[in-house]
Structure formats: structure tokens, C-alpha cells
Amino acid sequence: MNAWSHPQTIGDWLKGMVALRPIVLVLLLSLGLIAELRFDWAEHLVGRYLVTTNPFRPESGAIWEKGHRTEDARQVLEKIVTDKQAVQREARDAQNFTQIAQALSRGIELIISADHFRHLYNELPPELAAELLSPYTLVRIVSKNEWDRAFFEPGASGFSIYFLNKDNRVLQQLTVSADMLARMEHGETPRIDRLENLPQFANRIYTADRFFRALESVSEDVRRQGVPWPENLLKSPGRVSRVAISDEVLSGYIELGFELEEPTQTRVILFQGRDWAVARIRAVLEGETFENPITF
Fold this sequence. Notes:
The chain is of the alpha+beta class and about 300 residues long.
């Protein structure tokens, strides 16, 4: 038994070394090593295994963290680009400064053409347009033929506007404050509505005849400051049926609402009158006394 399991002589040991099984084993190992060096089959096999088990392994380690940061950065960049494109589309389609302000509320700058700015400027009530920029100044800038585009920059309250030429040189800078923006929002666009549906005019609605009798009884300066650019009321095909006065003062102005009865709808046009002038008109309305009574 001992002779069978352990070689007793060198001859027995050599016979074991040259037996078929060890030779075959050595040949197989050698062939495997040569094949690995030549074809990298072990690396491919391990790689396929890792790919197969990849979904089930935890996402940890430096490579995973780098991949996460790269993906997060890509998503943030895509969102920034998408937001900027959306804001620019909104700006190109804007019909008034209120829509521009809504686009700027995302905190992204925008640029529009000089012609587009002129359109927005002309859509403003004349008194607001003149407060934003004198029409004489705008005509001078346009006549020099240098102005190319307008750059809007959002601020903590309101926004800034820069007139730029093709070389990005600033030709003019404007500032739209939060108060002025609020007045633009109130007065830019006529609304299809009735005065009693607007809470700022509650209990201060007068017939058109009563209001205009009071208006004609005060001085021309009070009329012009209280109801600037009444010509805008003549642009509508309807007639003024009622007038309302707000009791809120915003940056020295008080809002007035003129209700127009048109053939197919009722609209309200808002005006911004100087507070002292509107107060004088309202005092006449409430007292039913006229400085210069009108006789018919």
C-alpha cells in the first residue's frame, strides 16, 4: 500500500513524471497560456461576464461617481439651453412689455431686434412710452442708423434695457422699475370685461355723462394730467358707458377704467392719471359741484 501511494526510488518517481496525465495537463496549460497571449480570450470572457452582471451590481466607485457627475452636468446644460431657447421664442412672439417681463422672470437675458422694440414701444400708452423713453430721443437714435438690437437684463426688481449696435456698443440704457412694470401691466392691453369685475374699482363707478361733466369743469392742466391721451378712447368703435377710479396710488399715479360698449363685446381700457389731478376730479364727482358749470 505504501509503495503504491509514495514512490520509493528515483526510478519510480521519474516514471510518475513521464506518465501521460501530467504531460497532457502541462500541454493544456501551455496551450491556454499561448491562446491567452495571442487572443486575450480571458479578458473577453471576464468582460462579457461583467457586462451581463452590470445591471445587478451597485453603482459605487470613482468611475460611477464620475459618470453621475457627467450625466448631471449634461442634464443641467440641456435645461439651460432649453430655457434660453424657450425664452427667446417667447421674446420673438411678445406683443407687449408685459410678455417680455414674463419671459425675463426666469432670470435669463434676452435679445430682440430694434424693429421689434419699436413695435413694443408703440403698443405702450403714450404717457408710459414717454416716461420710458422720450419719443424724440428714440427718433434721434433710429435716424442715426446704428441701432441693431435691444438687450434685456433681469434685475432684482424690474429690468434694464440696452440699445446695442452691431459691435455691441451701448447706445442707450433704460431702466424699467417694478412700479413702472406694474403700471405697464395694468395699462398696456384693453381687456374684455366689465368694471364691476375689477376689484380695484369697487364702489367707485360713475356714468360716463357724470364723469365727463366733472372732467370738463376742471382746468385743462387737471384734465391732461388726470386723463392723459384721451385720443386713445376714440380708437375704439364703441362708446364710453361708465368710468371708474381706483383708490390705490402707485408711484404717484391712480388708475382709471373706461368701459366701452362695442357692437359685439364690452371692453375696459385702463389709464394712469397723476394722483393729484385724479383726486381733484374725484372731489368734483363726489361733491357734485363743478368749477365751471356747463350749460346746455
